[in-house]
Amino acid sequence: MKPLTKPFFRLFLVLLMLLTFQVFGQETEINQILTQREASNQALRNFDDVLNNTFLTEDVLITTGAGTLISGKAKLMEYIKNSSGPRMYWVRTPDEIKVNPETNLAWETGTWKGFVEGLKESIVGGKYSAQWTKETGVWLIQSQLFVTLPN
Questions:
Q1: How far apart are CA 12 and CA 103, in angstroms?
Q2: Using an 8 Å Cβ cutoff, are 65 and 126 in contact?
Q3: Contact 86, 116 (CB under 8 A)
Q4: pTM for this model (two decimals)
């Protein structure tokens, strides 16, 4: 190997290693978020609002599919408690998750479906986006935006 290409080769190897660590690091973080999302979906299916709240930050912001803005866990629990009509749960299915390891924030986007207790077919659905944060060492939902769309 020529003397000029040796430093270039070393630099190439270092960059390749950094890229590999970045890709695998992203996959680990994405898998952690997917695990949290599935556990949250399961808590909603079981109507376990207390467990579902453990996946949210204290100051979570949620915009419902109908456009109602809810600020904080306490307000969310109040909103659920005062809801009228049949009991419903929601399933969020991610299409994309991107993680920013420098800020410990992540972006999730996908589709959601709302189900009435006891029915197998969804009665409502649309698109959603979520912002996750890992301030405490665990990925938590900091914000969710739901938009109801026609089938």
A1: 27
A2: yes
A3: yes
A4: 0.81
Residue 3 confidence class, pLDDT cut points 50, 70, 90 = low
Q: Which CATH architecture has domain 5-148?
A: Roll (3.10)
- Bridge partner residues of 128 (DSSP): 110, 146
CA atoms of 149 and 42, how far apart (whole Å)? 23
CA atoms within a 13 Å half-sphere pointing along the CA-CB vector of 34: 11
What per-residue confidence (pLDDT) applies to 9? 65
DSSP state of 98: E
The answer to whether residue 8 scores a pLDDT higher than 70 is no
The rounded distance, in Å, linking the Cα atoms of 60 and 76 is 9
The single residue listed with the structure tokens 């991610």 is 94
Residue 87 DSSP one-character state: -
What is the distance between the alpha carbons of residues 71 and 63, in angstroms, rounded to a whole number?
A: 9
* Ranges of each domain in the chain: 5-148
Q: Are 127 and 151 in contact (CB under 8 A)?
A: no
- Cβ-contact 148, 128 below 8 angstroms: no
What count of other Cβ atoms lies within 10 Å of the Cβ of residue 56?
19
Tell me which residue of 50, 20, 23, 40 sits closest to 138, measured CA to CA. 40
